[in-house]
Amino acid sequence: MPNTKSAIKRLRQSERRRDRNKAARSRLRTALKKVRAASEPEQAASLYREAARLLDQAAGRKLVHKNRADRSKARLAAHVRKVGGTP
Fold it and tell me: Which residues contact 8 (CB under 8 A, 6 or more apart)?
């Protein structure tokens, strides 16, 4: 339990950040799952664009590493091409 005023404030800030990061990470994971589950080319392509945008945002906020975001986008794009869409 924090004792000083600054430690109490840091606790409040870290809790807010944790909640915000958790929500963003959850939204990202859901978007990735939707792309992988898509079977129609047009749907897969539009879901890919949304997921790629979320991955770039997450990498910019350091929620995921930039290399992981790039790797995930490449794998998703390969999946979309396999389904028949264009990423």
Answer: 2
In-domain check, residue 49: yes
Whether 3 is covered by a domain: the verdict is no
Tokens of 43: 């749907």
CA distance 74 to 82: 12
pLDDT given for residue 55 in this prediction? 98
**36-78: pLDDT as tens digits:** 999 899 999 999 999 999 999 999 999 999 999 999 999 999 9
Alpha-carbon distance values, 62 to 25, 26, 35, 75 (Å): 11, 15, 22, 20
Tell me if 43 is assigned to some domain: yes
Query: At residue 6, what is the residue type?
Result: S
pTM for the full model?
0.87
Look at the chain and report how many structural domains it folds into. Answer: 1
